[in-house]
TrEMBL record:
Top-level lineage group: Bacteria
InterPro entries according to UniProt: AMP-bd_C, AMP-bd_C_sf, AMP-binding_CS, AMP-dep_synth/lig_dom, ANL_N_sf
GO-annotated biological processes: fatty acid metabolic process
Similarity-based family: Belongs to the ATP-dependent AMP-binding enzyme family.
Keyword Protein biosynthesis: no
Signal peptide: none
Species, as recorded: Spiribacter salilacus
UniProt xrefs under Pfam families: AMP-binding, AMP-binding_C
Protein name: AMP-binding protein
Keyword terms, alphabetized: Fatty acid metabolism, Ligase, Lipid metabolism
Domain AMP-dependent synthetase/ligase: 29-402
Boundaries of every AMP-binding enzyme C-terminal domain copy: 452-526
GO molecular function, one term: ligase activity
């Protein structure tokens, strides 16, 4: 039986302002401005902002928002691409104790309207290029947030962003959170099967993950980070706050296109960038005349669906060192990393690629990561075969779902965050995703991973995109059906793909049917498998 702790260690040593402050990532920018005021913080085309200017403008935004009535717990929404104003919003909004709601710029008006209403938005900052979308959403919403336009024309009826922040005090004493558990942001899940859920993140988690990024990614001082990952997605995996830790430089991009990416990689000597597998496919499929010689190996961090092994091999050949991450909006972005072992460098290309395709081990600031039986909450055997549900526990797990207590309770059942992702645990403690729980195919009592089939299909040179779902079968209950998008100017038919799959898959895992068609995606580029299943059941 444990002995009680000597009470003098606690009762006689209370917290006070000298020895206890709430954790918040906002202090990173303040420190960078104090220590490296003239170092370039943001580059966007011809625009340049030093750390002193970045900090001052963020403080002015916080001051202007305070004058506009924003206070603790008020929601400020932004509909912005990856531009300096978006970086300022990640600091200025929480600097006045408000909550940042970064909206996916690819959503439709009705979904944005739902988010504005659900988040109870008070102010909406919009880029001029996205104003028609914002106005369409506001016409459908119940709330009527004050509208502020970035890059507004001189004759506009709306308040311009630069005019708005000019009303703020550059010497504004920004407000620390009253509690590190206070919300710093709300971000919405993709909502492929219903209304999206509002994921609430707190200052403590953002602080820990921002530092964790720097350490896990082994980012040196003055790293240069290219914004190919949307900042609206999980707050850009907390990298808007990470770069200040390192006195790094943000390279902003309005659009993710091959030519400007390659240009930025070479001209700004980019050291790091992040993105989903489609960004990697974009890079490796760029014509040779548009590519630029890279001054060094570039670190590329990828998440979302497990990348095809062929794409990983092509990225390595193109001069990128790819690190696989995994996480969710509910874990502030990446909470799992494929920590690389130096002895793996000596393996052949196929073996290295197989190791790179694994999601990995828990992120530095995450306390526990397990693959558990969803019914018993007991760990599955670490045999690389037994499938269970990936679950998280720690300080970089969300506060919960905004105004949705039943969904929050369900997600945290048994004291774990249930990801809904299925995977295996390898003997060395590394996890590997196999599917979403709703995407697993059960054929004749056997569990079949759609990801494994897709990975085999991607090995065919004519396959650009593959998505595998279950289709009804009289005898087996379900069998795999493969939807295929062909590479440009490539032809392939069902017979050829069947022959190809026989070389890579067990017989019971073979797709029984192929559909050659455009594959539907969400606004964030995720394949909408529920729509594919619906096609098969109609």
């Amino acid at each position: 039986m444990a002995r009680p702790m000597n009470s003098a260690y606690n009762d006689e040593l209370p917290r006070n302002a000298a020895n206890y402050q709430p954790l918040t990532p906002l202090i990173f920018l303040q420190r960078a401005a104090d220590v490296m005021p003239h170092h370039p913080a943001i580059i966007h085309g011809d625009q340049r902002f030093s750390y002193a200017e970045f900090y001052q403008r963020s403080c002015q935004l916080a001051s202007a928002l305070t004058k506009a009535g924003m206070a603790r717990g008020d929601t400020v929404s932004v509909l912005l691409p990856n531009i300096p104003a978006m970086l300022e919003a990640h600091h200025g909004v929480p600097m006045c104790q408000a909550v940042l709601h970064a909206i996916n710029t690819r959503l439709d008006a009705s979904t944005i309207a739902f988010q504005l209403d659900h988040a109870q938005s008070k102010i909406l900052i919009v880029d001029q290029a996205l104003l028609p979308l914002a106005q369409a959403a506001l016409a459908l919403s119940d709330v009527a947030p004050e509208l502020i336009i970035n890059d507004s024309p001189a004759d506009s009826e709306h308040l311009d962003y630069e005019q708005f922040i000019a009303t703020g005090d550059p010497d504004f004493q920004w407000l620390m959170p009253e509690d590190e558990w206070d919300a710093i942001s709300i971000g919405y899940t993709s909502g492929t099967t219903g209304n999206p859920k509002g994921v609430v993140s707190h200052h403590r988690g953002a602080y820990l993950l921002a530092q964790g990024n720097a350490l896990v990614a082994n980012m040196p001082r003055h790293s240069t980070y290219l914004w190919t990952l949307p900042m609206f997605h999980c707050n850009g995996w907390c990298f808007p706050w990470t770069l200040s830790v390192l006195f790094g430089t943000h390279i902003c991009l309005r659009e993710v296109r091959a030519e400007p990416i390659w240009q930025a990689l070479a001209e700004h000597k980019v050291t790091h960038l992040c993105g989903a597998p489609p960004v990697m496919s974009l890079l490796v499929s760029t014509p040779a005349e548009q590519r630029r010689k890279l001054p060094h190996a570039v670190e590329f961090f990828t998440a979302a669906a497990p990348p095809p092994k062929k794409v990983l091999a092509d990225m390595e050949a193109a001069g990128f060192n790819v690190t696989q991450l995994y996480g969710l909006t509910e874990t502030y972005g990446p909470a799992v990393v494929n920590e690389w072992h130096s002895e793996w460098d000596t393996l052949d290309a196929d073996a290295r690629t197989a190791y790179k395709a694994r999601q990995g081990v828990r992120y530095l600031p995450l306390e526990q990561l397990k693959v558990l039986d969803p019914d018993t909450l007991k760990p599955v055997p670490a045999d690389g075969r037994t499938i269970g549900e990936v679950m998280f526990r720690g300080n970089v797990v969300m506060k919960g779902y905004f105004r949705n207590p039943s969904a929050t309770e369900e997600a945290f059942a048994g004291g774990w965050f249930h990801s809904g992702d299925l995977g295996v645990m390898h003997a060395d403690g590394y996890i590997e995703l196999k599917d979403r729980s709703k995407d697993i195919i059960i054929s004749g009592g056997e569990n079949i991973s759609s990801i494994e089939i897709e990975d085999a299909l991607y090995k065919h040179p004519a396959v650009a995109v593959a998505a595998v779902v279950a289709m009804p079968h009289e005898k087996w209950g379900e069998t795999p059906c493969a939807f295929i998008e062909r590479m440009p100017e490539q032809t392939v038919n069902e017979e050829a793909l069947i022959a190809h799959c026989r070389q890579h898959l067990a017989g019971y895992k073979m797709p029984r049917h192929f559909v050659f068609a455009d594959i539907p995606r969400t606004a964030t580029g995720k394949i909408q498998k529920h729509l594919l299943r619906k096609q098969l059941n109609n």
